[in-house]
Amino acid sequence: MLSSVTSAAACRHLIMAPFKFCPNLNFMFLESPSILERYSLAKKAGFQAVEVGFPYVHSIEELVKAKEDNGLKQVLINVYVGDVTKGELGFAAIPGQEDAFQASVLKAVNYAKALDCKLIHVMSGLVKNPTPANQETYEKNIRWATKVFEKEKIVGLIEPINQRSVPDYFMSSYITAVDLVKKVNSPNLKIMLDVFHLQQLHGNLVSNIEGLASQGLIGHVQIAQVPLRGEPNTPGEINYAYLFSILEKIKYDGWVGLEYKPSNGTVNGLTWIEAMGFKL
């Protein structure tokens, strides 16, 4: 088993690429209850860009102002997922919710265009006992969304999420995700490579990442340690010093989303970046 406590120095000679990191403001800078203020905290910490999974608690105007006041790039948002208190986490795989799905995508597109954001994560929804109807609905909805993204020059992302973290989440297989993206066959539909989920769903990180890259399927990368979802240098299953060398090997040049839960304050936890030979 790999461990994050492996010396970063031992692998640093393999790491050359100037990776671009962006914090997910639904996971980091929770020292402030306000997403709007987290934009400012991210800028003060040295970040040049952010991602926000669930921006819809604020108006488009409020978010644009927070982004522009701090001179930040908006890398990614999720679609509107509905009311999480009612068990909603997206509509893509839910038969009978096609209208809600289309409305959620169009709402996300409006936010993304205003924020000059080029990536939208399409969430599948929760399904306790999946049937073929769920997969058929999911494929139909993803095809519809992809046509919208093509028109708007936005890349849609589907992300396999492990069901230990999110019980009953429908899209929980990279095999299924790869098959669908290849069937749709559009440059505007890619896979969100969240290493935290990939490790728990399938393992074999190196071969799986290289395989996804060789097929041109990676649209965005997110990272967190397994199993506690802390910083990359906290104890766990993934040797991130080595994993970054693999991202360099495949010539990944997109943003790396930091979707982890800081162990002891967001800013205190950022020391891993310099320790691994990077800078913001």
Automatic annotation (TrEMBL):
Residues 41-274 form the Xylose isomerase-like TIM barrel domain. It is an enzyme of class 5 (isomerase). The active site is at 159 (proton donor/acceptor), 259 (proton donor/acceptor). GO terms for biological process: glyoxylate metabolic process. Keywords: Isomerase. SUPFAM superfamilies: Xylose isomerase-like (SSF51658). Catalyzes the reversible isomerization between hydroxypyruvate and 2-hydroxy-3-oxopropanoate (also termed tartronate semialdehyde). PANTHER family: HYDROXYPYRUVATE ISOMERASE-RELATED (PTHR43489:SF6), ISOMERASE (PTHR43489). Belongs to the hyi family. This is Putative hydroxypyruvate isomerase. The lineage of its organism: Eukaryota, Metazoa, Ecdysozoa, Arthropoda, Hexapoda. The gene is LOC113208790.
